[in-house]
Write a structure and sequence with these properties.
alpha/beta; 2 domains; elongated
Length: 365
Amino acid sequence: MKLKKPTIICVDDESTVLVSLKEQLKRVFGDDYRIEVSESAEDALEIIQELNEEQVEIPLIISDQIMPGMKGDEFLVKVHQMKPSTLKILLTGQANAEAVGNIVNSGSLYRYISKPWEANDLQLTIKEALRRYSNELELNLKSENLAKNAEAFFRFVPNQFLELLGFTDSQYSEVQLGHSLEKDLTVLFSDIRGFTSLCELIPTDSIFTLLNEYLSHMAPIIYKHNGFIDSYIGDSIMALFHNPEEAMEASLEMLKALKVYNDKRIVESGIPIAIGIGINTGTLILGTIGEEKRIQTTVIGDTVNIAARIEGMTKDAGRSLLVSEHTVKLIKDSAKYQFKLVPQQDIRGKVEGIEIYEVGAERKS
């Protein structure tokens, strides 16, 4: 479908003025713009509404001030409310300072030109207005593209991670290999149990659908409790929290959400999902790794390794949620959680010297 030309609208209650103005504009701008005219502000507003419905651009409106009914200043203020990016020129010999001030303050008036106008002066003013509109349109488009690119970037690299490294949003381009920082954080690992076996029971093309559906239930809970996801590793989630209690709250809510999700899965496919969650708190190192063409953020250290191993213990211990003593000791109101020390014999490949606690699915009231 051929796009309609952008439209310039001229409004004046004197038909002879409109005819002269339209002919002058058509000679100079008619190849690139359609020229619409109206003898009243009310009719012009209807034209604008119709053009909006047709998604036609209106880069410029030229209006007289003294007209029956709605005056030019009131009209251009309404236009600004409807089309703030449209430029506005007041073309009249009878506008007072109050009317002009009203449009400048409330209607973002571009220019005021007195009648009778000089043809060359009007043409140059309109050319400059159209050039400005085009430039602003291009800048807005570039800004939208930058915002979209930034949004896409943060789907791969969490901005919370970069903020922890000390970078503000205006400094992200300065991130280089080797930036690192030690930080005390709580690490949450979660993993779908028996995922390999589960994949053998469902069609290959449904595996990613299952994963994305499951993650879409879990991830918002982590964000809700002020955590952020460092990485997805296959069917595993690694998330970081400043506050260990928020990691606890997120974990318990994830298990509740999983139960609701499984109720739906049982009806649809008969195959529920089980997960294990392991939590540990301590000092870790955040940083960037990779090479010149591919940089990735990561966290390393014993705190991370222990959290991963604790998650791995959930299957052997037959529990859904296990927490290290380092995390339990930092929770201020630990009495509201159902912490229970896991006997060492219940865990194969235990983390030496660290007590591990199971957590009930419900908080104490």
